[in-house]
Amino acid sequence: MKLNQLIQTLLGSRQPAQVSRPEQELLSSLLVMAWVVEARDPYTGGHLWRVAQFCELLAQKAGFAAEEVARIALGGFVHDLGKVGIPDAVLRKAGPLSDEEYAVIKTHPDIGFRLLHAHPLAALVEDAVRLHHEMPDGRGYPLGLKAGEIPHLASIVGICDAFDAMTSTRPYRAGMPQAQALQIIGKNLGTQFDAHFGELFIQLGESGVLSPIIGHTDQGIPLRHCGMCGPTVILKRAHRAGDHVFCGNCGADYLLQQKTPGSPLELQATGATGNAKDLSPEADVELIERLAKHQFAEAL
């Protein structure tokens, strides 16, 4: 599926040649909106990319058409848009949330829905943004929908989001093993997770296709570990030996080194701390453009 076709889902049935460049750029603008949220929390580096990959695999496993697979993957990337409205004191808290703080977090689906409403591509992903925390037993939020009422897009994103949360490290706990996370999903089929899609996701995990995604920020690029904070150093595909990268949490400066040509880049602590310019968020433009032109534009 081409990007023009994805846009036509919302804009109508014009021929691809009639779709303007500005309209094509709408998709990239949507991805940038979502990326802003991830940039605020150093412990969620790569979360959007990973959820999008899980969503694509699950949608393909479920047998959806190429256009719908791309839409579901896109929904996985933008689902947490509403967290832009959550205070840093709650979003970046280095410990479990209190009941009051959890109530604040629970507002993010509706915040995202409102923020997204004015975007021309809102109709493609609004179910993912607003409804990914709904549950088949009706205990989810914000609407308390039950099985049969939850759109498949939201059900799929909800499973993939939860799996990534379980397998990712946070300041107060290490990420759990994949097998344990899959077991939790299995125990909650039909209650927290859609039974059909949840079973398919477990099958994906057992096949081994989820492993190369866990703990990564892009294909073949794992999160790197800060000596003080854990997996909070994000590398981009454009990084090369000799570049400096910084921990998103404590600001520690690391020099990228490569022992031999073609070997993985390694971090060497410099003992310094980045300045304000070093630590200011900078979107991974190459990744966003690649996703917009390929993964979210056609089935892989």
Automatic annotation (TrEMBL):
SUPFAM superfamilies: HD-domain/PDEase-like. Pfam families: HD_5 (PF13487). This is HD-GYP domain-containing protein. It comes from Pseudomonas gingeri. InterPro entries: Cyclic_di-GMP/3'3'-cGAMP_PDE, HD/PDEase_dom, HD_GYP_dom. One of its GO terms (molecular function) is phosphoric diester hydrolase activity. Residues 22-217 form the HD-GYP domain.
